[in-house]
Amino acid sequence: MCGIIGIVGVEPVSGRLIETLRRLEYRGYDSAGVAGVVGGHVERRRAKGKIRELEAALAAQPLDATVGIGHTRWATHGAPSAGNAHPQTAGRVSVAHNGIIENFAALKAELQGRGRVFQSDTDTEVVAHLIDEGLAAGQEPMAALKAALDRLTGAYALAVLVEGHDDLVMGARRGSPLVVGYGEGEMFIGSDALAVGPFTKRIAYLEEGDHVAIDHGEARIFDAAGARVERPIQLVAASAALVEKGNYRHFMEKEIHDQPDACQHTLASYVDPIAGRAEAPGGFDFQAVDRLQILACGTAYYAGLIGKYLIESLAGLPVDVEVASEFRYREAAVSPDTLAVAISQSGETADTLAALRWCKERGLATAAVVNAHESSMAREAGVLWPTNAGPEICVLSTKAFTAQVSVLTALAIAAARQRGRIDEAEERRRVAILLEAPRLLAQALAVEDQVRAVSHLVARARDVLYLGRGAMFPLAMEGALKLKEVSYIHAEGYAAGEMKHGPIALIDEATPVVVVAPSDALFEKTLSNISEVMAREGPVILITDEAGAARAPPEAKLVVAPACDPLIAPLVFAVPLQLLAYQVGVFKGADVDQPRNLAKSVTVE
Ligand code: AGP
Q: Residue 198 has what pLDDT?
């Protein structure tokens, strides 16, 4: 995923482009660039690496412009380099692009056949050449853009500058988001509301296939068929304040600490504390379906697996959970009475969106548990089940994860009551337990010192095993993912009962084993697994509660989390795992918020 911004402004544009790209850096950060209209000509500045490298290039060679575009990149085609950084240009045209042009190779060969010379290895450059060919044939810029769009297959959000049209930035979207910001005598386009939030609160979300021309006075929007359309202008509070770190050292630390609020704000849409009722927003009837098919990627997938444990055990409703990148291609045998549920922080993950569309095309009812309420998934799913975690900037998902689990826990209670598995009294009891989660999440943050004391054991390891039983098994996989992402240490989450069927061969004194085990009905079984590890010299870090700590073997390093009901253990015990990853990342001096090779939302396959 990449971040793009376009400004037709009245102030110098360089600083505003850099400020925006820094806010968009979480979307991709291996190279960046800007282009601006200077005295009727378009000038570019590009740099490999983080935004600070581009800032240095601009300091060395300022860009004296008030109209410009900018881009921060997560490389898909063409290695990270200044030459492959956007904007990509051809003739009079400069293009910044988020997405993948799937037919770029054929288009590139066709264009080269017409004598076009390419400067980069990117797919994006073909777009610049196609638009430039249209201009050369006498088309107006928007006609040339539309003709180029009609040749493309794949996904794009575009920002386009055309030399000789100083008061114009063009944009287009298909498969990647793009918004229009309405300022006072100036206009903006950007990848999301956060991009334009500090400049304006008045934002319109472009629809699939839309393309737009912005100038100082207006935005002219056209739909996929080329007809002029209006998109509703909304007041969006995506102010810069929402994406500042405050007193925290990293966004990851801030967002781990945001979780009590994120959980509380999310539950407010699902539970009525006075009536003691749980309800899906819009009042979905879980009696109307006979199966859920959860589709997600990465951390969201692990949230879905936790949802399976809770919904099946509480509501007796069968739940399948699958990584979207597999589901979308395997011609799954789905029954018509299945509800497809996409889970996604960004609501733009390409594989999850495609899997959701696959289900919708086959007539399944669809729902989306998403944090970005204006995202593609939010708008295309039959029902929106929002998480209200607020913007999550760190590439590693933390508060969105516990917000997703909060939603799934509330839905499990709602479905159980609707399907007659629990009565109203039991529902009130379960809701009361769930409403304890924000307080216990806050209490769990206090294990920070205990976690710091054991983080060195993990930081020096080459391989780490995470074990759990029941809903702690997917949580163990999420804990392993957090560690991998932030520290580049190989880690694997495994079912504790499954370890002896192979992975136990990995255990030695250099392989720490993190066991996440509240003192629940499975604790004794897990204690046996801990003994099996220790019998082979494996160092054990046991994340448990007071009662578990009292029964733990003395050699185990303990992290004691707050005691809680099993219903909310996946929420409460997520915090020590997140803090462990964070502390190890800090210990290793890692780039915690923007680890190498990652992007916040993978909007390409
Ligand atoms: C989470 O820490 C990862 N960055 C990644 O696995 C992420 O959860 C995954 O890419 C899904 O993103 P989404 O929730 O925006 O769909």
A: 83
Dist. CA 123 → ligand 1 center (Å): 24
Tens-place pLDDT, residues 283-319: 999 999 999 999 999 999 999 999 999 999 999 999 9
How many CB atoms lie under 10 A from the CB of residue 462? Answer: 8
Strand order across the beta sheet in which 291-296 lies: 319-323, 291-296, 338-344, 365-370, 383-386
Does 252 reside within a domain?
A: no
Cis check: omega of the bond before 87, within 30 degrees of 0: yes
Encode pLDDT of 391-407 as tens digits: 898 999 999 999 999 99
Identify whether residues 289 and 427 lie together within a single domain: yes
What are the Cα distances from residue 395, in Å, to 203, 308, 331, 576? Answer: 25, 25, 31, 19
Active-site residue 600, yes or no? yes
Q: What is the mean pLDDT of residues 80-100?
A: 93
Q: Is 601 in the pocket of ligand 1 (CB under 6 A)?
A: yes
394 in a structural domain: yes
> Quick one: 430 and 525 in the same domain?
no
Please report, for the domain that includes residue 306, its CATH number. Answer: 3.40.50.10490
- What is the position in ligand 1's atom list of the atom closest to the CA of 481? 2
My answer on whether 416 and 465 are in the same domain is no
CATH of the domain at 183: 3.60.20.10
Q: Which domain holds residue 377?
A: 269-435
CB-ligand 1 contact for 578 (6 Å cutoff): no
Residue (of 177, 176, 238, 235) closest to 203 by Cα position: 235
